[in-house]
Amino acid sequence: MQRRTLLTGLAAAGATTLAPWAHAQNYPDQIIKWVVPYPAGGGTDVIARTLAEAMRPSLGQSIVIDNRPGASTNIGAELVAKSKPDGYTLMSADNAVLAFNEFLFSKLPFNPEKDFSYIGAIGRFPMALVVNPAFPAKDFKEFLAYAKANPGKLNYASPGNGSPHHLAMEMFKNRTGTFITHIPYRGAAPAMADVMGGQVPCMFLDLASGLPIMQSGKVRVLAIGSAQRSKLLPNVPTLAEVGVPNTEVFAFQGVLGPAGMPAPIVTRLNAELNKSFSNPAVQKRFDDFGMEPLPGTPAQFQALARAEAKRWGPIIKAQGIRLD
């Protein structure tokens, strides 16, 4: 009797151990949900839809985009963190989810380091400092001199509190010792409209949202927050070139799932994501957005996210920024 009980227990344990692997062999056998923690039509949404369509043929299943905006991405992130880790719920994650919110909020409904399976990075796009063409500063040197001569009198726009654009300017202020007042908007479009219209003189703007108006001259681009000059804006100097070192500012995106996803499923999704970067439609979308693809492993994506959290945490604390 004891031997039979032991064998039965071992068989049950073996079945439990093998179940995720058996599931992984058949993956995917149903529609995959991809959560985007922003409204439909924005840059993150467009990138997700483009990648989902590119990955669909190889996966053999549709990927449906589920927009869950709100609470600075916390609503969508919490939903995914608490989902079943079977590979059928994924999400687009960016600076907010992975590097900012743990410092902006006193309490989060998820732990960015422990509550997710990291699948792979998507890409990054730099932020550029832009001004209205009528603004008296014609280049970065004149802008910095104006800001220092007029502390508190210069305003800047952003798509909202806690956005990469907001924090890019806060890092800039921290590095340059300037006092520029934040005017938050509800989204990039109205912020850009007021900078173009002259209601607010300046902002940090990502290439994904602002490249067309940068190239058209509707705003003047003073400097870009990347390590090297952008091939899309070859005449624009980097912040390091104009005398502001250690101020690389960019937005990044990647794909997450709930913690505990079977390793074979994570590996499969990572491979499909990396393969999608060679799809012509994806390449065109990335080029249109000025986005640099970041193919790599799940571990490399997680390392990027944690490095960015360590880089931005001190800035957020030093500038006293809170969202609750």
UniProtKB/TrEMBL annotation:
It comes from Variovorax robiniae. Keywords: Signal. InterPro entries: BUG (IPR005064), Bug_dom1 (IPR042100). Residues 1-24 form the signal peptide. This is Tripartite tricarboxylate transporter substrate binding protein. The keyword Signal applies. Pfam families: TctC (PF03401). The keyword Cell membrane does not apply. Belongs to the UPF0065 (bug) family.
